[in-house]
Amino acid sequence: MQLGIHLPQIGRKAGPEGMRRAAVQAEELGYADVWTSEHIITPQGAPYPPSPLFYDPVLSLTWAAAYTKRVRLGTSVLVLPMRHPLPLAKELATLQNLSAGRLILGAGVGWLEAEFAALGVPFHERGRRMDEGIAMMKAVWSDDPVSFDAKFIPAVIDTMRMMPKPEKPIPIWIGGSSEPALRRALGLDGWHGSRTSPEEAGPIVKRLRAARPDPGFAISLRAAWDGKDDGALKARLDAYAAAGVGHVMLEPFDRELEDWLGSVERIAKAGAAYLV
User: Fold this and answer.
1) Rounded mean pLDDT for each run of 10 residues along the chain, 276 residues in total
2) Which end of the chain is more exposed for a tag (fewer CB within 10 A), N or C?
3) Distance of CA 61 to CAs 72, 98, 206, Å?
4) How far apart are CA 187 and CA 152, in angstroms?
C-alpha cells in the first residue's frame, strides 16, 4: 500500500509558502503523492465545506510540482461536470508535461447544487456531462486532428487541433461510492473512495478486483485524521492494507499551518511501512 497526503490548500492554513513547504516535506518524508481538492464558489454560511478559501487545485499542484521531483500530484477530486472539458484538458496536459508525468486525475460528479447553479451548469445532468467530458478530454489528448460529437456539453469540435498532448497518459481515478461511480471507475484507471472504513472497504475491493485484477487499476481511499491517537491511525492503515486497498490519502484536521506540518510528520511515523 502507498500513502499520500493532502496539501494545506484550504482555509486559513492555505498559502503559497505553506503549500511549498508541505510539498517538499512530503517528498522528503517518502509520501507517494500530494493532493488538492476543489470548490470554485460556495454559499455563504454553508455548514460544509468549512471554509470558502480554496486555492485552485490544478494551479496549486503546478506550484507543488515546481518544488519537487518525485511525488505524484493528485486531485481529490476535480468536479468535472462544473468545468468545460477543453480548457481543463489543456491545463491538465500542460501540468502533466511540466511535471514529467506525475499527475493523477481524481474526478467526481459533485454534490453542491448551488455551486452548479452559480456556474450555469445543469446539476441534474452532471452524470452525463461527466462521462461525455472524460470522453472529450481523452479524444483531444490522443487524436490529431480531433472530431467529437458532443450531446450534453456545448462544443462543436470538427477536425480541430489541441496541443500539447500529454507525454504520458493521465490516469483517471473516479471518486465516490455510488453504483454509477463504481461502474465508471471500472471503465477507467482506478477508484478513489472516501469516508469508508476498512470493514466497508473490504467488499468494495473484492468487487473491483474481481472485475479489474490488473495491477495497473488503482484502489485508493481518502481518509481524515483528527490527530488524537497515533496508534489507532497505524492500526487503521494496517487494516486498509489487509483489506486490499492499494493507496490511502490522508488529510489532517489541523487549521494552522505549523500544526498541519507536525501532523504530516506524525502520520509518516505511524505509516512508515507504507512510505516510499
Assistant:
1) 98 97 98 98 93 97 98 98 98 98 98 98 97 98 98 98 98 96 98 96 97 97 97 98 98 97 98 97
2) C
3) 9, 11, 32
4) 20
Alpha helices, H only, the chain: 16-29, 57-66, 85-98, 113-119, 126-142, 179-186, 198-211, 230-242, 257-270
Sequence-distant (6+) residues with CB within 8 A of 131 are: 184
Give the global pTM: 0.98
pLDDT value at residue 207: 97
Phi, psi of 104 (to 5 degrees): -120, 125
Give the CA distances from residue 10 to residues 31, 50, 198, 254, in Å, rounded to whole numbers and listed in that order. 20, 9, 26, 11
Domains of the chain (ranges; CATH) run 2-274 (3.20.20.30)
Among 245, 263, 266, smallest CA distance to 2 is for: 245
User: Quick one: three-class SS letters along 207-263?
Assistant: HHHHHCCCCCCEEEEEEEECCCCHHHHHHHHHHHHHCCCCEEEEEECCCCHHHHHHH
Distance CA 28, CA 12 (A): 24
Q: How far is CA 131 from CA 65, 134, 183, in A?
A: 28, 5, 11
